[in-house]
Amino acid sequence: MNTTLTKEITSDMKMGEILDIYPGAKRALFQKYHIGGCSSCGFSLDESLQEVFVNHRRDKEVDNAIKFIYDSAEVDRQMQISPKELKERLDKGEEIKLVDVREDWEIEIASIPGSEMISQKLAYEILNKWDKNTTTVFICHHGMRSLEATSYFKGHGLPNCKSLTGGVDLWSVEIDPSMKRY
After folding, report:
1. Where in the chain is the domain with CATH 3.40.250.10?
2. Which listed CATH number (1.25.10.10, 3.30.200.20, 3.40.250.10, 3.40.50.2300) goes with 80-174?
3. 38, 41, 140, 161: which is the annotated catalytic residue?
4. pLDDT tens, 93-128?
5. How open is the CA angle 123-169-89, to the nearest 5 degrees?
6. How is the beta sheet containing 115-117 ordered, strand by strand?
7. Average of per-residue pLDDT across 75-82
8. pTM tops 0.85
9. Which of 2, 46, 167, 169 has the fewest CB atoms within 10 Å around its CB?
């Protein structure tokens, strides 16, 4: 996942390009404008941002939407932890819960030692039994599903959640090159 603002968004930019640069934009647009979350409010990746907002009768809000995408990207950045920082904190002995949100088959290929696979039971325990201040890092393949999980659990009252930037893929590159990549 790209964690730095690398390109300015313009109203004529295609949605596919925006989502490549700012993957959280879809979540942000749905959250604020109810655009992009379901079939009735969806959009094509080939449509420009302006076209999407015209189609949803919100054409006067494009500039505000661009600002909101930038703001949301910053929120996403703050919800992440780099593999290097996570490794340093684990090496110092900090108590950090690692929760893997990938599919079974992915975890069989590669996983970070000490991580627990998410399940309905574990999600219930996290929300209802864990101390709300537990430091928790969510993990996936490239950092997108874990960012969604982090956002969800933060929204449900767990302030110390983070998403592993780049997921197990970046972890295998920066921390453990012996880990299989897929």
Report:
1. 80-174
2. 3.40.250.10
3. 140
4. 999 999 999 999 999 999 999 999 999 999 999 999
5. 65
6. 80-81, 161-164, 136-139, 97-100, 115-117
7. 94
8. no
9. 46
